[in-house]
Amino acid sequence: MVDAGATRPAGEGESVVVVGAGLSGLATALGVALRGGRAIVLEASELVGGAAAYSGGQVWSGANHVAERMGIEDSLELTETYIRDIAHDSPEVLDEVAMKRWIEASPEALKYWEDVGAITWALIPGLADYHNEANGALPEGRYLTNALIDGSVLGEWREKLRYSPYFPVGQTYEEMLGKGRRASYVEEDGPAKHSHVGLPAFGIADGSHAEAEVRDEDPLTFGTGVVASFLNRVIAEPGIEIRLEHRVSELLTDASGAVVGVKADSPAGVVQLDGPVVLATSTYDWDPELVGEMLGLGPEDFGSVAPESLRGDAIRLARAVGGDIAKIPPTAVPILPGWRSQVGTGFGYGPEYAMPHSMIVDETGNRYCNDSYWVDIVAKTLDPKDRHLPFFLVWDDQHRQKYGLAGTPPGGEYPEGWVESAPTLRELGEKLGIEGEQLERTAERFSENARKGEDPDFGRGTVTYVNKFAGDPSNKPSPVLGEIAQGPFHGLRLKFVGTGIGSSGVRIDGEGRALDEGLNPIEGLYVVGSAAGMTTTGTGYNSGIALGRGLTHAYLVAQRLGAELSEPAAL
User: Fold this and answer.
1) N or C: which end of the chain has fewer CB within 10 A?
2) How far is CA 116 from CA 35, 101, 233, in A?
3) Are 454 and 481 a contacting pair, CB within 8 Å?
């Protein structure tokens, strides 16, 4: 209920309160302001950008205007065919109405954001839909990202923008895909080249720091660039205020149960803000209790590469006012195989598990999935009828020499105690707790087929997206297949790592309104981005849907709030 005892800053009237300064939160605030409203964005951490800023910056949308102007044929009908085909498992978690609303509104929303100057879109060339075997899939055209933006346009806000340690910020997708994602990190002029003046560049996908190089230019691409584009437009709007280090602790309701404001913990103490609320706090990666509830994984099998501010706040806040939580089966959640960081207590991930001369096995020493493709890895590893935990990445010395791993460059030595190494696969199995004899047999069969560029057992190399995005384009005959035959051999126990897309979240309708357990809208409460359960696609997922859906719902919610705020008050 409303508490008159909390501090309200002097002279402050009702605004839309946006909880979270990630991409969807910033976009919602911008949409409200452009429709004549005021928005206050409360961010729990000291930086803006959230998980989106760490991401690859892929924004997926069928029948989008950028593809159309490039002459790529697509349609809303074809898009729906594709989504239905990839979402056929567990149809009970797919909201048909919300799915259609998202598909129809997405092209309109993305064009709107470009028209109002929030971003200049660029098509990611030659990148196919994940599920190239599915009906309605396209070989390219549905992935958008930002045209390069220079960080200097952000002024003082540049120092408050999250900078991705997981992608070669400053390079374009065309450059990265041409040489391979891993090669883009470890080339001689690698990540330090693209660091911002005065900021450290990050090591390869494990959060370790590399020496920064001072530059006069600050090109921003990938997720960092997409967020920077929107932030640049947001800070130009006088009707938007961003408050950092304000973590919302409670939603306030009136006697009817409508949400009418928030309480937040700030450096100055507890503050209260009045107005409709939009939850944009992303997912639950750093809350072990919610990870256990949603994914069934403990700390030995899960970590996260998302910002530590992703603590399931939206789920807890919405539950406290009667909000329903949509749970997506863990086998369909986009989590990735990763590892603990080489330094500190963090986690990392990268394309190395999908690259030649590597494979994933369980403790019996057997492969059990297409181990270059996270979709199949997650589905098979977490299959409740046939789980394969713990699971392990095994590779030979050709992999070490060509690619390295995480912060270890090609040909480098792994930090002591970080991986296990042995002269034979049998001995490696003993060190890792894997059945060594079977590991040898598995590697022998894998290698025999890999030399021919084939994987008749599990189809590694058959997913066009993976081959392009994660493979080694110089490796023949397949960018993701290579023998495991040259000792010494190496291995580590894998963890699943979250990237800020938990799939399970607050249940919403097609307009972004939070729903209660009776599936009725909760007045005054909206949810956008990965804070919202992924009922729009159910168990289907494609890279870029999270950001694309988030920007679509931000557009729809801002549209609705703008209309409500412009209505004359009742007499």
Assistant:
1) C
2) 11, 22, 9
3) yes
Report residue 545: phi and psi, to 5°.
-65, -35
Q: Which pLDDT score is estimated for 110?
A: 98
The type of residue at 255 is: A
486-543, pLDDT tens digit by residue? 999 999 999 999 999 999 999 999 999 999 999 999 999 999 999 999 999 999 999 9
pLDDT of 204 > 60? The answer is no
Q: Tell me, rounded to whole angstroms, the distance of Cα 159 from its chain centroid.
A: 22
Written as six digits, the tokens of 196 are 């911002």
Write out the two tokens for 113: 């954001």
Q: Percent of the chain having pLDDT more than 70? A: 91
**φ/ψ of residue 71, rounded to 5:** 80, 15
Tell me the CA distances in angstroms from 429 to 284, 337, 365, 391, 486, one per residue in order.
34, 19, 8, 12, 16
Residues linked to residue 261 through DSSP beta bridges, in sequence order: 252, 274
Nearest-angstrom CA–CA distance, 190 and 204: 10
The 10 Å Cβ neighbour count of residue 276 is 24
- Compute the half-sphere exposure of residue 275: CA atoms within 13 Å on the CB side of its CA: 24
pLDDT tens by residue, 301-337: 999 999 999 999 999 999 999 999 999 999 999 999 9
pLDDT average, residue stretch 554-561: 97
Phi, psi of 379 (to 5 degrees): -60, -45
- Written in H, E and C, the secondary structure of 412-470 is CCCCCCCCEEECCHHHHHHHHCCCHHHHHHHHHHHHHHHCCCCCCCCCCCCCHHHHHHC
What is the percentage of the chain residues whose pLDDT exceeds 90?
86
β-strand partners of 220? 149
pLDDT computed for residue 180 by the predictor: 81
- Dihedral sign, Cα of residue 177, residue 181, residue 182, residue 187: positive
* 150 CB-contact burial (10 Å; exposed 0-12 / middle 13-18 / buried 19+): middle
Taking the C-alpha atoms of residue 501 and residue 547, their distance in angstroms, rounded to an integer, is 10
Q: What one-letter code names the amino acid at 120?
A: T
Q: What is the pLDDT of residue 566?
A: 63
